Amino acid sequence: MTAQALLKDVFGFDDFRPGQAEIVDAVAQGDNVLAIMPTGGGKSLCFQLPALIRQGVTVVISPLIALMRDQVRALQEVGVTAGALTSGNTPEETDQVWQALEDGRLKLLYMAPERLATGSTIGMLRRIGVSLIAVDEAHCVSQWGHDFRPDYLRIGELRRALDVPLAAFTATADAETRVEIVQKLFDGGEPRSFLRGFDRPNLHLAFAAKNQPRQQILQFAAARKGQSGIVYCGTRAKTEGLARALREAGHPAIHYHGGMEAEDRRIAETRFQREDGLIVVATVAFGMGVDKPDVRWVAHADLPKSIEAYYQEIGRAGRDGAPAETLTLFGPEDIKLRRSQIDEGLAPPERRMADHARLNALLGLAEALECRRINLLAYFGENPSACNHCDLCDTPADTFDGTTAVRKALSAILRTEEWFGAGHLIDILLGNETDKIRARGHASLPTFGVGTEYDRRQWQAVFRQMMGHDLIRPDPERHGALRMTDRALPILRDQDTITLRRDTIRSAKRGPVVKALVTEEDAPLLSALKAKRRALAEAAKLPAYMVFNDKTLIEMAEQRPLTLDQMAGITGVGAKKLQTYGDAFLSVITGASEPMHPTRMKLAGQDAGAIYDRLIEIQSQLSRGSEGTDKPLSCSASQLSKVAKLRNADERALEHVLGDKRTERFGAAFLDVLREAG
Fold first, then answer.
1. Residues 157 and 64 in one domain
2. What would the pLDDT profile of 657-677 be if each residue is shown by its tens digit?
3. What CATH code is carried by the domain that includes residue 454?
4. What are the C-alpha distances in Å from 459 to residues 410, 505, 644?
């Protein structure tokens, strides 16, 4: 079968997402491939589909057991023979994988990179006839990346030993990381590279300055009650406290962090995958293993550590392509923490400079004055137009010339010789004679009391924005005292100006708006379809999205298919899922559904399906001959299916399928139907 036919028949999609078709063709042809695709862009399909086209076994190297198990279950649900060899397998599961390999049925074999460290693995892979290596989350090979896995360095050796093509996939790889991937996985030989756009148009982007941050997160969650979400926190303690607060507010919520027992983490991962509407409050330890397509929102209670980390973490929302929302909270303490983590780390100086630049890019996005998406994608080298799908496009920023305020703040920093934090500097600007100011004689400074046009809270916003624009940085050697950067010099010397946001100073409040997934008219049906999905998933002990994801149910609710043929046209409904779940969901939509013969069900959504129905009618009319007096005769469902699929048929072709007697009874009428069809 062609890639296009497999896409529809197995996975239930009419069309590839942008960029997928070229990557699938390259991988299927056996080219070495490096594909950088946006999160939620359909990376997995780009090696799963070629695995079905190519002879032999495709080995998939993936970093997390939970991720492997989910992908294997999802493939099995659509009728693909896949398995995983992991430390989490039961003996029965491992036996099933080996049996499928021996029988030649297994198409995809998942394994963790750590398994490559055992001497027997390469020999085993040689024996089973591997024809392709696929590497998921390929950025894990980067030594300075935040997800570095040492055993990924063994993959290049595996490729050389098996002498088969390799396809590497990642969503997060700047130019530097791409060079590392090519060196370490492809020995420096240039693979065919595909750099897909980084835009995720279904994600709504929003940032907010911290102002009672726990309350801000609770309000955001309240407006999205019943929807699956992730809240990322900077500390383990905060995950537990915020999860508790969400539960007290009536949300199903759990926490997740690296300090939990392995079994507790596994239980949390399983609950999140299987339960509708569950919120996980987590550290970044809850990371690459999140492959749940219907996460409807991601919130950051603390600033992420870089723009790549931000992009990867928000990318866990809306992987099904349906609308999803993001909110990132940030404040001066976040900026101080992230700067100090970089400065106090063990990385060499050039790496620390690069990390500061990545943080600056994120802070630039946080303090942006116009469209967030333009700012975000510019970092990845793209030039989109305004998105009309972010908080700044919804409500343009209220700005003012902040040059004078910034100069006053810089003057206070320099006149106190860069030895103090924002609190003391604001006291100087406001003219507050504190004990600390009196003890140091700072009331006599020319800057004492020159900033009374703003109150303390407003000055805090000015200082935060100055940190966000990298005009000032906390000095780790001076216990976080603020010092001026070279970026500030042109403003101080009256060679440049700076615009600040007035709304962050005023702390303008805007209540959250509940985002509906469907119209009010379709909402009751969507709820009923979700209830049916939940019941079927619980009975099969599957995550709900493996039955159908949100986007598929939304399309069902909007289009309301009345027959299984129409149901087959819904995105995400492949042949196996139609056979397994079609009647159940059709009965929700129509109130009742007549069972369809399994042979006919396999033709649902195809031209041959309508031909099959017409052949059944003809057979019924001619079962006792044209005069109605002959001995009853009929064809089997299998025979009718074969006839329905015939093209350019003649009487000999019919005889080959039906035999002489049936061709004599039905042949002429059947040929008329086939000619009419085309």
1. yes
2. 888 888 888 888 888 888 887
3. 1.10.10.10
4. 12, 8, 76
